[in-house]
Design goal:
By secondary structure, the protein is of the alpha/beta class. It is 37% helix and 21% strand. The protein has 15 helices and 17 strands. It has a seven-stranded mixed sheet with strand order 5-4-1-6-10-7-11, sandwiched between helices. A six-stranded parallel sheet has the order 13-12-14-15-16-17, sandwiched between helices. Helix 9 crosses helix 15. The longest helix has 21 residues. The two termini are 39 Å apart.
Length: 448
């Protein structure tokens, strides 16, 4: 739990944090999907994320939006997904007063730059209303610009992509309201008061309402202003408020399967697994000499065969580290450093320093594997392992900065069959280290 986090909802409050500076802490992805050009977007767009829940269904003390995945709070992943969309101007997060300082700490630690905070209400609808008030120009001390369209999303749905955000925004511009939907997985039934079955619904006729949703700001703000206390207290569906109070029939948009909401404890494990899979899709093989390049290319080829759905690239350290910086800019989180001639401690330090200067380790654990090649028939394995003790010491130091350093010994025998066997075993070890990102392996030197 972040310092100062509490799970009790607070009463509604006013906007307590002004607008941040321009820019994003993360590289902006190119728009995905047809028509995703900023020039075709409807005016200004903002987003509201209610994050005042206490996580009762999850059964843990920490509110689920602050639960940690790979040592980083869940809400930070959701904010990152929205910040990558360059046409979302402002993001308002509603947080309980008790968790306000903890939320500010998260924003600062993970470099979120486009976020404003408002105090959450005692219910979901009251929290959203407070977020809308922070964007409305009729409120005192309002420091944000009223958008034409506002997106409402959940702080615990971290896998939202730009394509679905764009589609609901464009539909909201035309219809006044729009929301993502998904087919029902389970059949819905209605029981009698005594617990016996009354009737079941035809699953094919119904859909599950998901997030994100989008609205013309004036439509949803008017709906909340007219909203009854009963709806504010017990309602959960924003699209229904737009229909009930503003007579706007929402356009329903079929969403992708990864819009699901982290609700139960097992969802945390599923979400962490998805994040690991996502950040393990690229591996950079780093080489420094012609000898290393020869082994490196062979390893690169074996890795491509072992991980057929993963992009394997190569880079050469040098020229001020420019090649490596290009891969860091490209959001690669796995680096394989090939050493043939010597166990170059200084070259490894150069790479680690470059990584530390970037924001990568703040966002996700970065795996660095120092691969060392020797002919097991010519050099004592024990002697070689002793010469690599520096990996253990260096790993302890960089682990604190979320870099997981480990070593790997390959048999660079002149026997072609033994070399291929060692490369195959090494590729399997690399695949496991990259996919699992288990800090328990940091500092270990494994032998293939």
């Amino acid at each position: 739990m972040e310092p100062g986090l509490h799970s009790r909802p607070a009463e509604p409050g006013r906007c307590v944090s002004g607008p941040p500076g321009d820019g994003s802490a993360f590289p902006v992805d190119l728009p995905s999907g047809a028509g995703a050009q900023p020039g075709g977007l409807p005016g200004t767009v903002a987003a509201v994320l209610p994050a005042g829940g206490c996580g009762e269904r999850m059964g843990v003390r920490t509110p689920k939006q602050f639960c940690r995945l790979l040592e980083r709070p869940l809400i930070s992943y959701t904010l990152q997904a929205l910040e990558r969309v360059c046409w979302i101007k402002d993001i308002v997060v509603t947080v309980t007063g008790e968790n306000m300082e903890a939320m500010r700490s998260i924003l600062q630690r993970y470099g979120h730059k486009r976020i404003s905070l408002a105090e959450a209400g005692a219910t979901r609808h009251r929290s959203i209303f407070n977020g809308l008030k922070a964007l409305a120009e009729d409120q005192p001390d309002c420091k944000l610009t009223k958008p034409e369209v506002v997106i409402i999303h959940d702080a615990v749905r971290p896998f939202v992509e730009e394509d679905i955000l764009l589609r609901v925004v464009i539909a909201a511009k035309e219809h006044g309201a729009a929301g993502a939907i998904r087919p029902l997985v389970s059949t819905v039934i209605s029981p009698f008061a005594d617990g016996c079955l009354d009737h079941s619904l035809d699953r094919a006729k119904y859909r599950a309402s998901e997030m994100p949703q989008a609205f013309l700001f004036d439509v949803i703000y008017e709906a909340y202003q007219q909203c009854s206390d009963y709806d504010l207290e017990f309602g959960t569906e924003c699209l229904q408020l737009a229909l009930k109070y503003c007579h706007r029939k929402a356009k329903l948009i079929e969403g992708p399967p990864d819009l699901w909401k982290v609700t139960y404890k097992q969802d945390l494990y599923a979400a962490e697994s998805m994040i690991k899979e996502k950040i393990s899709q690229e591996i950079c093989v780093v080489m420094n000499t012609k000898e290393e390049e020869s082994i490196g290319r062979l390893l690169e080829e074996v890795l491509r065969n072992e991980l057929n759905c993963v992009t394997v690239m190569s880079a050469v350290v040098g020229h001020g580290g420019r090649d490596i910086r290009n891969f860091i800019t490209g959001q690669c989180y796995s680096f394989i450093c090939v050493n043939v001639v010597s166990s170059d401690f200084h070259e490894m330090q150069k790479l680690l320093s470059t990584l530390e200067e970037s924001s990568l380790p703040l966002l996700y654990p970065v795996v660095v594997i120092s691969v060392h090649c020797l002919d097991f028939t010519l050099v004592s394995l024990t002697q070689k392992l002793e010469s690599l003790m520096w990996i253990r010491d260096l790993a302890k130091e960089v682990k604190e900065r979320n870099i997981l350093l480990s070593g790997l010994l390959l048999n660079s025998s002149q026997d072609e069959q033994k070399l291929q066997e060692s490369l195959g075993q090494g590729a399997a070890i690399i695949a496991a280290l990259v996919k699992e990102r288990n800090s328990a392996f940091a500092g270990q030197v494994l032998v293939a």
